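Q: For a teaching handout, I want to show students what a protein-ligand complex looks like in C-alpha cell form. Below are the inputs, and the small molecule is NAP. Please produce the holo structure.
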Amino acid sequence: MPKMFLDGKVALVTGASRGIGRTIALELAKSGAALAINYAASREGAENTVAAIAAMGGRACALRADVSGFQAARELVEECVAALGGVDILVNNAGITRDNLILRMKEEDWDAVVDTNLKGAFNCIRSAARYMVKNRWGRIINISSVAGLSGNAGQVNYSAAKAGLIGLTKAMAKELGSRNITVNAVAPGLIDTDMTGILTDKQREKISNSIALGRLGRPGDVAALVAFLAGDAAGYISGQVIAVDGGLVI
Ligand code: NAP
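A: Here is the structure, written as C-alpha cells, with NAP included.
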C-alpha cells in the first residue's frame, strides 16, 4: 500500500458522529491517521463513522464524552491514548447553537454554547497538549466560524464563543510553537449539515445569493483544509484563521 501523509499519526476529532466532524474524521483516516471519534449523544452516528473508517482499512474507535466537562475531556484524551497509542492531532469541532436575540437569551443558552464551543476546546487542549509537547510534534485545529469574525445577529453567544476560539488559537500558537506544535482555526461559512438544516429553501436561496460562489458549503470543503493543516506540508502555518466560506465574508 502506498504511504499516506498521516500514516502513524493519531487524531482525536470531537463531535465526529455527524456533520463536519464526521467528514473531517473520514478525510484524516483516508490520509492514514488512526481516529478517535468523539460524540456526546449520537452513539449510532459515531459507530457508523468508525465502521466507515474500518471499511476503508483504517483504525478507529468511538469515545463518548461531553467536552464541556473538564474531567470528561481529560478522560476522553486518556482513553484516546490508551486505545490508539497517543494523540498527535486534535480537532476541536464539537459545537452547538442556542440562538436568540439578546433580550430573550436565557443565561443557560449563553452558558451551554460558551461551555461547549469554547471551554470544550480548552478542556481538550489542556490534556492533549501534554502529549504533543512530549513528542515535539502536534497539530491543533479549532473549528471556529465566520460568526466569530463578523458577528451574527441572534447569535451573540455563538459569535462570542467562536471569536474566543480565535483568541485561544493565537495565544496557544505562541505558547506551543517552540515545541513544533501548530495551532490554527478554521472558520466555515454556511455548511450544509444538521446545524443549518432548519433553514427554509427561501432562506437558503437568500444566503446563497450573498455567497461569491453562489452555494452553501459542503462538509468536505472544510475537511480538505483540516487534513492539509494536519500534515507536514502545513508545518510552517500557525496562529492563522482560515475561512472556508465560498467568499461569504470578503
Ligand atoms: P452538527 O451537525 O450539529 O454536529 C455537531 C457535532 O458536535 C455532533 O457530532 C455532536 O455530537 C457534537 N457535540 C455537540 N455537543 C457536544 C459536546 N458537548 N461534547 C461532544 N460533542 C458534542 O454540527 P456541524 O454543522 O457539523 O458543526 C460542526 C462544527 O462546525 C461546530 O463547531 C460548528 O459550530 C462549526 N460550524 C458549522 C457551520 C455550519 O454551517 N454547519 C458553520 C460554521 C461553523 P452528538 O451527535 O453526539 O450530539
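A: Two things your students might notice: The mean pLDDT is 97. The chain is about 45% helix and 15% strand.
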